[in-house]
UniProtKB/TrEMBL annotation:
UniProt cross-references to Pfam families, sorted A to Z: BACK, BTB
Domain BTB intervals: 23-97
Record's protein name: BTB domain-containing protein
Domain of life, per lineage: Eukaryota
Amino acid sequence: MSSKFLEKLSQDFTELLDDNEEYNVIIKVDKEANKKSFTAHSTVLRYRSSYFKNELTNTTVTVNENNIKVIIKPNISSQVFEIILKYIYGGIVNVENVNTKTIYELMIAAKELEFEELSKEIESHLIDTKAAWIRTHFSFVYQSIFKINEFKNLENFCNNIIAKHPNLIFESEDFKSLQESALVSILKRDGLQVKESDIWDYVIKWGIAKNPDLPVKLEEWSDENFLTLKITLQQFLPHFRYFHISNADIMDRIKPYKKILDEQLWDDLIQYLLLPDRPIKSIILPARSISISELPSREINLFRL
């Protein structure tokens, strides 16, 4: 006879969290008024998490007067850590009544604490069921996942959203603080649904924001000012589809900043305007393709591991 009683086992282990006598680890989380301490058992933590295994065997870990090891994680909220602790002991994650921002923070914390299965499950959960929230909080999500660089599926999901709805990032209040690598990734996309000259304007604004000492009036710029902007934008300039910009926009939008372009490229642009059948030396990137797709919006709030 072979029987499995996983649900009862999970319940029994979860009840260990209420044991106020046999614990030998204290984990302090959150900041200021929200600070909270959780008690736990080193044996459970070590076997459930490689992160905690390393922390508990670290000779520099704090030990209090009662010989209890103390781990401090101020960057993880008390609500998030309570969910994680129940996952550690019971293997169950219930986010039925948890707001999406907290679920997102749970994914980040799970990755930091090296719960790969949990972080991947939440990543999929966000992609499959929380597209509307991701779109509403797009700048926050995109910047944070690009900085962490650990959630490739979510990153690709966001990149696809950007291609179809570029205003979510270009028109956001946080655009000027977007990381260079993130903006390069956006510019490389062939399906970006926005006029090339508009992309140029956005990137110019981004570059100027990075150099607040540049004169406000363009007519007051020196060659040194243009060189400063050129250096700032050097990773972006090769990814523009210059030869697919209208003649009017070349003259009205690109020409005022022609000094940040290589001389050969500018000469080729002018030649292409006047004599489009003549060969040029510059590389002509293909025009960006345009496609329209609706974002999913269904909601599912409960999953178990």
